Prior knowledge:
The complex is a heterodimer.
Chain A: H1 2-30, H2 35-42, H3 45-78, H4 84-91, H5 93-96, H6 99-110, H7 118-123, H8 132-142, H9 145-158, H10 161-168, H11 173-202, H12 205-211, H13 221-230, H14 234-258
Helix pairs in contact in A: 1-14, 2-14, 3-8, 3-9, 3-11, 3-13, 6-8, 6-12, 8-12, 9-11, 10-11, 11-14, 13-14
Chain B: E1 3-12, E2 15-25, E3 30-34, H1 41-49, E4 56-61, E5 64-65, H2 71-74, E6 76-79, H3 91-101, H4 106-119, H5 135-148, E7 153-157, H6 165-182, E8 185-190, H7 193-199, E9 202-207, E10 210-215, H8 217-222, H9 227-232, E11 237-239, E12 242-244, E13 249-252, E14 260-270, E15 273-280, E16 285-291, H10 292-297, E17 305-310
Parallel strand pairs in B: 3-8, 3-9, 6-7, 7-8
Antiparallel strand pairs in B: 1-2, 1-4, 4-5, 9-10, 11-12, 13-17, 14-15, 14-17, 15-16
Amino acid sequence: xxxxxxxxxxxxxxxxxxxxxxxxxxxxxxxxxxxxxxxxxxxxxxxxxxxxxxxxxxxxxxxxxxxxxxxxxxxxxxxxxxxxxxxxxxxxxxxxxxxxxxxxxxxxxxxxxxxxxxxxxxxxxxxxxxxxxxxxxxxxxxxxxxxxxxxxxxxxxxxxxxxxxxxxxxxxxxxxxxxxxxxxxxxxxxxxxxxxxxxxxxxxxxxxxxxxxxxxxxxxxxxxxxxxxxxxxxxxxxxxxxxxxxxxxxxxxxxxxxxxxxxxx
Amino acid sequence: xxxxxxxxxxxxxxxxxxxxxxxxxxxxxxxxxxxxxxxxxxxxxxxxxxxxxxxxxxxxxxxxxxxxxxxxxxxxxxxxxxxxxxxxxxxxxxxxxxxxxxxxxxxxxxxxxxxxxxxxxxxxxxxxxxxxxxxxxxxxxxxxxxxxxxxxxxxxxxxxxxxxxxxxxxxxxxxxxxxxxxxxxxxxxxxxxxxxxxxxxxxxxxxxxxxxxxxxxxxxxxxxxxxxxxxxxxxxxxxxxxxxxxxxxxxxxxxxxxxxxxxxxxxxxxxxxxxxxxxxxxxxxxxxxxxxxxxxxxxxxxxxxxxxxxxxxxxxxxxxxxx
Lengths: 265, 323
């Protein structure tokens, strides 16, 4: 009995010290000059633009990574070809590589002066680095594995018999995918989408390198938090942090709501 | 409709699942593909359905070459061993699937689904999900789903293999009756000879990717083409170096011409049937199937010395002729 309480205490104390206290302090600091000051801090034109930009990152990266994730999971689970294991391993690269390195590698590819293809894009008048496209690419890179990783196990679990049954009943490949496969894997995909969203909202390192951090132009919410902090505008930094926290909490809550009942604990 | 399989070969890597198999299934018949696991029977069924494509050979359904048709164009009903129920759909939606795909009018679909659910005795289950059904109910749902599109042929892959013995027996008899009602050309795969004998009009015995023999259950039992078929269709026992049905051996108390001496090791009472296990003079083990009445009349008991004599010389397999 006592050891049970001890275990519970350790788990809760660990969580409280590591997660609870810092997050609560963020909220506390954001509102130390009153709700009005916090509200003003997150409604300046720069802040509004930063949140808009973060929304754009999420709105582009999440759908694209979702489609790619489902396709990649189908290929990895259902097909046998040379290089399949390599593809499977490459998907995890964004987990393993530091976001800063991701940012630098994007500079090498798309950099305007000495990037691999950046020069060509620049000649066409398309700016990638220090601009929104580069930031979107960085966000996509770091949030790429989630949908794939969450979809693969459910895809393995459902097997192919339901799809074969659908085929014998007259369904073509597209009908089979949309009527059978997708509904069967929807919880895995949805969980992946939630994690992708959370990651895209919070990305800092890679985006920071490729953005150039131009206030009001290439500054996302996370970059805004950093620049406000550097300028000793604590209320601004903490208030923006609170918005990010709330968005993350909403995302996690959404995940718990969409999870099938049997998977909830 | 009739099915013709003509010299079909299918390999999976180095493994030959079907080796030049030819077969004809009559329109409206009920055929069993019987054989040990890995014998090629499921592969043959899947080739007919279009779920596997043969390396060579052709498949004709209703006289029409279907070899290069994908499964969705063949209009066959397929029932899987593990039901392949669409878990996110209700029973009614499962059964309606093929009709929904064919964009039939809603009223027609509802009517047909009701009719099929009555046929498979699942009237009250239309709005349940597959997870709320028992194995036997799920398989009946799968059968209704396959029948909904009025398939040209109905193919069942070990349909009762995942069910417990009682339900299996029930569904067997029920499939037989269903076939009498619906008359769709039906082919089912099984490794259970009793199931094949009980349900099918025609049995095709497959082993190592080849057809060992095909014929009616009676033919296969009485005139097995070879030792394998004899051993697979019904029990066999060894006497004087040849295979024999264990009930075609008489137990005698005295030696006669052509009898073999044996000692009773064990007597197993299975109700009406009694199994007598013996050791022959040369040390070989064998067994004889007799009746309770006979065993009592001969006053058999373990340790007794008796003499064995085949009572039906015709039981010997006819000379091996592979098709």
